[in-house]
Amino acid sequence: MNLDKLTAVTLALNRRFPAWNEPFQIMTRLIEESGELAEQVNHFEGSETKRKKYGEPDKTKMAKEVMDVLRCALQVAMYYGIESELEATIEQSYQRAKAEGLIQ
Question: DSSP readout, 4-72?
Fold first, then answer.
């Protein structure tokens, strides 16, 4: 996974839609995108009836919704200028999991 490219996409969308970069607007998008991701999970886990209605689940659609959620969450971090703290938190979590033998 390449967070540098996700950061670039997030910055590009901030430039494309400069009027939609306030915290409550970002959170509204995050909630909306989370709902769309939940819909995809439901489709993947759904009954045969759901698959008859909507067709087979699509991994590409699922990946797009995951990316949208990650992008919105990253946009929150960028808005508040906590990228280095986020990076440190990810590193701490990684090191903890490694020390516990959960990562080789």
Answer: HHHHHHHHHHHHHSGGG-SHHHHHHHHHHHHHHHHHHHHHHH--HHHHHHH-S--HHHHHHHHHHHHHH
